[in-house]
Amino acid sequence: VTSEDEIGDLARSMNRMAATLAHVEAERDELDKVRQDFIANVSHELRTPLTTMQGFLEALQDGLVQDGASRHKYYDVMYKETLHMSRLVDDLLELVRLTKHEFNLVKQPVNMEALLNRLAFTFTAEAEKRGLALRLALDLPLPAVLGDAGRIEQIFVNLLGNALKFTEHGYIELAAREEKGGVEVTVTDTGIGIAEADLAHVWDRFFKVDRVRSRSETGTGLGLAIVQELVGLHEGVITVQSKLGEGTVFTVWLPGNEEQT
Ligand code: ADP
């Protein structure tokens, strides 16, 4: 015997199931859209250098570029385009690996003082080449961070690389201090800055404020997406503040090694 109450219950759970299904379908469509956008972006990013190379190769093949100097320029552009494509593929593979959680972070206590000193040393030469000063401001002592040293280094290599890339005058500062049992690191530059409307998008895959300029600088638009994944895998926090024409500050907080504290 099926009572009206039971039918009512059944109807309600069918409704719930239908609602859940609609929700899952909406999510699936959304996922498909993300995937489609991703594929479209990758194709576009690879298509552009390929088109350039194809055109240049055809011109060379057809004997349209006779003098040595022009030929040299053509080869140079083609070489740079292949470098750009390699970087793009490397970054893509890295990002996919990170988001699929296919690899394990080897988390150990990381001495941040040593790591940041090493980075400052590496980047000083590059900064000086561009007439920029690299300042290091460590508020010592810093607690050890629990993380994968190589991956943490990668976070700051990307941030410092961007700071250099987008700064023409002034300085880059790498600073760190203890914060909430962990370490807060800031990478500050006096560069071109990021408009408020663009700020939320800097983490998006393939996002570049100025595509032409960044392309000549061989940017892939994937660096900050990778940084964000890496900070997340460390259960850290990353934020950005910027003012157009004045400069940018990226702040990364990484949790301390609790066993130590
Ligand atoms: P890219 O390979 O282009 O550097 P990123 O993901 O690292 O890719 O950065 C995305 C975009 O965010 C950059 O193309 C640039 O427009 C902007 N951006 C990132 N860092 C800075 C910075 N320090 N100053 C100004 N703009 C920046």
From TrEMBL:
<dbReference type="GO" id="GO:0000155">
    <property type="term" value="F:phosphorelay sensor kinase activity"/>
</dbReference>
<keyword id="KW-1003">Cell membrane</keyword>
<keyword id="KW-0597">Phosphoprotein</keyword>
<dbReference type="GO" id="GO:0000156">
    <property type="term" value="F:phosphorelay response regulator activity"/>
</dbReference>
<keyword id="KW-0808">Transferase</keyword>
<dbReference type="GO" id="GO:0007234">
    <property type="term" value="P:osmosensory signaling via phosphorelay pathway"/>
</dbReference>
<dbReference type="GO" id="GO:0045121">
    <property type="term" value="C:membrane raft"/>
</dbReference>
<dbReference type="GO" id="GO:0030295">
    <property type="term" value="F:protein kinase activator activity"/>
</dbReference>
<protein>
    <recommendedName>
        <fullName>histidine kinase</fullName>
        <ecNumber>2.7.13.3</ecNumber>
    </recommendedName>
</protein>
<keyword id="KW-0067">ATP-binding</keyword>
<keyword id="KW-0902">Two-component regulatory system</keyword>
<keyword id="KW-0418">Kinase</keyword>
<keyword id="KW-0547">Nucleotide-binding</keyword>
<keyword id="KW-0472">Membrane</keyword>
<dbReference type="GO" id="GO:0005886">
    <property type="term" value="C:plasma membrane"/>
</dbReference>
<dbReference type="GO" id="GO:0005524">
    <property type="term" value="F:ATP binding"/>
</dbReference>
